Amino acid sequence: MSTGLERDRVPVEVTEDDLEAIVGDRALARDDHLNAPGFVVRPDDVRDVLSDLKERAGFDHLSNLTAQQYEDRYESIYHLTKYADRTQEVSIVVPTPIDDPVSESAAPVFSTADWHEREAFDLVGIDYEGHPDPRRILLPETWQGHPLSKDYDQEKPQLVTLTDHANPIQPDHHDAESDTMFLNIGPHHPATHGVLHLETVLDGETVVDVDPDIGYLHRCEEQMCQNGTYRHQIMPYPDRWDYVSAGLLNEWAYARVAEDLADIEVPDYAQVIRTMGAELCRIASHMLALATFALDVYGDFTAIFQYGMRDREVVQDILEDLTGQRLMFNYFRLGGVAWDLPEPRDEFVAKTRDFLDELPAKVDEYHDLLTSNEIFQVRTHDTGIIEPDVAKDYGCTGPVARGSGIDYDLRRDDPYGYYDELEWDVVTEPGCDNYSRVLVRMQEVEESAKIIEQCLDLLEDWPEDEREIQANVPRTLKPDADTEVYRAVEGAKGELGIYIRADGTDKPARFKIRSPCFHNLSALPEMANGEYVPDLIASLGSLDIVLGEVDR
Amino acid sequence: MSSNNPRQQIHGSTAPSTDTRDSRIGEGPDDRFNSKLREAFGSTPFILTKFDKFMNWVRGNSMFMLQFGIACCSIEMMHTYAIKHDLDRFGAGVPRASPRQADVMIVPGTIVSKFGPRMKRVYDQMPEPKFVVGMGSCTISGGPFQEGYNVVKGAEEIIPVDIHVPGCPPRPEALVYGIAKLQERIRNGESSPVVVKPYELEEFGDLPQDELVQKLASEIDEEDLVMRYNWADSP
After folding, report:
1. Which of A254, A250, A361 is nearest to A310 (CA)?
2. What are the start and end residues of every segment in region (Disordered) (chain B) (predicted)?
3. Minimal CA separation from A155 to chain B, in Å
């Protein structure tokens, strides 16, 4: 790995024998996932096994929970990994019988399991015993059936209610002196960045309780991907998860998992183009995060918001030259990219370099307008605090984790693409507050610019007869039945992972998306409870959620 | 010191005190009327028209948009409002956060079952006359998510739509064109055809007593508003 990317501490390597010793007799069988060793455990051992792995082997990151139904059983798969070393992974597979799908909840061990298990219950229909809040999460409360289970009939009618929400904690707080007030924020509200609904309870101006109610943009992405063939039909969908110009980053998540599944080697030249495109997307995405954050904090639709949009237009122009589309690129292919850099190449390179040259001045401008502004500092400094331990517990990743001083970036920790050949740094800020998260994003823009610069140098010097943009990929991909793989990439908002189980056909049997925004949002109550209402809005803005990715 | 009479001078001011009207008009003919309008209409700055026609003209040229972001298309919608494309040039780009202040609702994205009733409520809250621009394929038919178990097959299932702008997402230029077309229609006094919408908010008690309604009877109050999705009848 290149300079500047070394870690401070060298994590302890846990071998497969160690894992076997820790899980011990509780392992009913072994399961082989392409990415990690898997252990099959009984539904009532889940909590024990997970907490042992967390305490004794350092698996402190519950990256994902996949629930799925087979012909004869339900299965929950807990994908564990470490913040200190992303390459160490282990899967805990929990089968439950088809007529009584009850499994022990992992929520007491990992807070992030709370939302995971609600989603698994909602979409697949597994009950988690001992779950603190067993409600549906994405679909309306009155929904009938579990849409990703095998016997679901999509033609059945459904009822959705439109009712007033009750104050959930009024009885606890109501006495002669104090009373609480229920405040509905969203789902149509300018500060929620889309269609998020926050059920907020206030005591005076202080937030006592906030419950994010999501699912207003649940577009059945997993079902759509399960209906598509590997080769071409799935790739357009990732663009639409995190739709803030982060398309190429998302496409890479699918490309990476599918290439691992089908064992496809991507040519270096294509990897450089991918790396460059992905970082352009990251800049565009962070620019929007900044612009909308200024909109949230200042209510400023005129200056900073427009500055952000101005810079995004430039990036979008470059990306349009490269991919042919402004927002939904559909540019990656399994084994490479759709086409080479646009002709004339010099013009494209010059245009991109112009953008990079102007970027430092623009970043300075943002610093003048935003981060060195006293009002902004008062609004964001020391508000929306999330401590590193809490952030890890909730599975926060991306700028949110790095703003809490967690040195975790998949581009370096689990290298893919061309990142490990390039010189760049992982940005962290120790402040844990809204201000740090903004700083991290602004510095990441500069780091991305460095990466793009180096990619352009490489692309310019690449010999003309070695510009191979695609590997040789079979027309129809049919990975072997029961091959399972979980892979993640560093999306704009954090760790974007995909789990695929193949069943021998040309379509995935289960396609599960691990969305970074989903987890970052689940930590919102930790940041907002006890703070003032405006700080709740600032915290939400600094999380930079995209509802398309939260709800999928 | 207050008085009901208009004051001609400001006490203690060093500015020259002149008669207000004289100072505005100045000497000679009133140059306020030396405008494009004067050029167009000749010497008399008066136009005779029908009040309806005038109102349509005004409506078409001063439209307030609802600040309404749903999904991917809302990013392109923001770009349409922002610099470079600047929808406000066409007299149609002041986003309003409250539906009570808006004339036009751009529906930018996929509508799912949970959001349908909410969108209906927001639409109902807008004052008449109101117009709807459906942005993107999802608001036409459900777009790439049409086969989803949770996706409403187009905005027109719930609210009437005046203009459809196809694309996934449409470019800002396409949205500007769609809005311009809407303005043209409004100026001509055309309104959207009344569409028979399958999905309406109804009181739970009014629904026909079928299996689903009976099953949910214990959970939902008689007077609660519900929307019933008949997926089998959807396209």
Report:
1. A361
2. 1-34
3. 5
